[in-house]
Amino acid sequence: MTIRQLLKTAPVTTLLLASFIGLFVMQLVTGVDANNPSTEALVKWGANALPLTMMDDPWRLASSAFLHIGLMHLLFNGFAMYFFGQIAEPMFGSAKFLALFLLAAIGGNLLNNYVTWQSIIEGTGQPGLSAGASGGIMGIGAALLIAALFKISVNGMVLNLKSLIIIMAINLVYGFAVPGIDNAGHIGGAITGLVIALAFAIGYRQRLAVAMHNAAIEQPQRVHPYQTTYHYGDQGSDQYNRQYNRQYNEPLDNSDRYGSSPIDQSFSLNTDSIKQNAELDNNDSRLDNRDVIMPDMHGSDMERVTAVNLALKDNTTHSTVESKHPIKPSFIWQLLPWLAMLIISIGFVWWWQDIHQQILQVLKAIE
After folding, report:
1. The one catalytic residue among 68, 153, 186, 266
2. Which of 102, 121, 246, 265 has the smallest CB count inside 10 Å?
3. What is the pLDDT of residue 344?
4. Is 356 a catalytic residue?
5. Active-site annotation holds for 68
6. What are the domain boundaries of the chain?
7. CATH topology assigned to domain 3-217+336-366
8. 63, 64, 130, 134: the active-site residue
């Protein structure tokens, strides 16, 4: 996929990749080492660093997602963003995709800071820093897992659940096997992506059910079996009448077989046709729930027939109106992903405040 195609299909993905590369180029221009940037340089450019992030610089929770530690780190995350973004953004929408990436990155950084802070309290760890888009990318990958599980299609294609599981498993195992990888950031981002994608998938399923119901209503109605037009005698075309007269109105010579004179069946057949027409008209009138007045009926019988016909007519009209009315999808299903992200954001604020207060209490006790 070319850059122009990627910009048209996944504009947010393109802008994120451009921001990763642009920030890295700016570091190089200012003298930062391309492969081994210093701690001071990373802190200066917005890395997630405890206790700075949990004290006066909460913006580092988001800024660190655009910063990468070395060229290989940038290439690895850039390729993952390109691979996942061109699928996930058209599926979730550009706005939801961007919010998903940012919240997953923030969730990963918060979990990293929480684990680091707990290890400091227990005396088994020390302050550190982290950077990279891995948390946000893991959130996107987890969201694609949910999309594959719910069989949500993108451009008519359903994602391969097994392949996504293998990719996510490799990333998690690689993080535990290689030192210096932010495992807490990966896990926190993946959990955040799972929760957001679940809300999206539930809303998608509900909207799909409504769309299928409305599509079924729009199908052509089944023709009534008694509303068929029959042509007899002079009701048909001239060609049909000529064929009809040749086949049935010619005298049949049955004298040899039955010892009687030829029989002219035209009158009998025309009479049958008239009877069939009369019976069909009578059936149509009854099926159309019209009031039929028989000459031998008494007044009470006529009233009962009329009442039954009116009841049938009302029932038929009521059922027809119900079946033809489309259902509008509830607005709550469209808002569900945004509500889930709002609740997650509030939870993140509370989580940051909790760790922030713990750090302040410890610093106050030390003083």
Report:
1. 186
2. 246
3. 97
4. no
5. no
6. 3-217+336-366
7. Rhomboid-like fold (1.20.1540)
8. 134
